[in-house]
Amino acid sequence: MDSETILIIGANGQIGSVLTEALRAKYPKQTVLATDIREPESPSGPFTLLNVLDKDALEELVSSHRVSQIYHLAAILSAKGELDPLRTWDINMQSLFNVLEVARTKAVKKVFFPSSIAVFGPEANKKNTDQFEALTPRTVYGISKVAGENWCQYYFDRYGLDVRSVRYPGIIGHQSMPGGGTTDYAVEIFHEAIKNQSYSCFLNRDTRLPMMFMEDAIRATISIMDAPAEQVKIRSSYNLAGMSFTPEELAEEIQKHIPDFKISYAPDHREQIARSWPESINDQSARTDWNWQEKYDLARLTETMIRELKAKILV
Ligand code: AKB
To answer: Of the residues 58, 245, 276, 311, which has the fewest C-beta atoms closer than 10 A?
Structure first.
């Protein structure tokens, strides 16, 4: 393996914090530089405060550390994004432009850009949604991800920048909390089930969404970044699937471990966002091109989440 210096932007976030640890387990710790706009609670390696909207600061960091790979995970997610659409657009797009331009001009070898199932809208087939389905998102977050995917394709075609991307479903992990997303319920529910044996869900009982266990999401991210360039045939973003379930099905699975657990439903504005997204995703291209294969289904995810969170919460 060539020596790499890896920059993670948004390293304190739900995925960023776990990805940072995974990359520090794979590469020498000193070569994985975490950045965020906030200090981490307990840094496990090199950390620098960075506002990715400050292009000069990003450029200086990339130059001084001779960065060879950037994982750009900073973004405002679907539900929070609706509170201030224009600010969300500015942050999500300007941060990506800064990353792409600095990567291009400073000869960064590879860039990772996270896209999302939020690129799809109500017109898309709900079931087994195809890689090349029309993209008609209704959230500003989804619109910014569609635009972002197209810019990644553009930088690849025009400048040969090796940008790689997956469309994450909702990600569920015990290590970190999500913030501002529509799929956040599927993490919150576990914390509340363990602490209070009850949860009031902001989606309807039957709203089915694509989801994935954190370990699978991290493996997918590192796999696409490790794949030989010629295997990464899609340069906008790959559909990625793990499992799909409704809040009611998740609650029933939790009840197998916590029989007293009760769920109630108080759908809010996030229900409308969820209803505009697919129920399940066809990720055959990722499976064929770079051998993607998930390991966790709903039963295994639930069992692992409860075991890990009990050990953390009930000490
Ligand atoms: C969200 O709910 O906004 C995110 C996503 C699916 O991209 N978790």
So the answer is: 311
Rounded CA-CA distance 107/82 in Å is: 35
Q: Please give the distance, rounded to the nearest whole angstrom, from the Cα atom of residue 314 to the centre of ligand 1.
A: 28
Strands annotated E in the chain: 6-9, 32-36, 47-49, 69-72, 110-116, 162-168, 170-172, 198-201, 209-213, 238-239, 243-245, 262-265
Write down the catalytic residue from 141, 155, 199, 296: 141
- For ligand 1, atom 7, which residue shows the shortest CA distance? 116
Q: What is the pLDDT of residues 78-98, one digit of tens each?
A: 999 999 999 999 999 999 999
The verdict on 135 and 190 lying in the same domain is no
Pocket of ligand 1 (CB under 6 A): 77-78, 116-118, 141, 168, 170, 181-183
Structural domain count, the chain:
2
Which ligand 1 atom is at minimum distance from the Cα of 141?
A: 3
Does this model's pTM top 0.90? My answer is yes
The tokens for 263 are 């769920």
Does the active-site annotation cover 141?
A: yes
Tell me what pLDDT residue 2 has.
Answer: 64
Closest CA to 112 of 242, 230, 227, 12: 227
Range of the domain at 194: 172-210+243-277+297-313
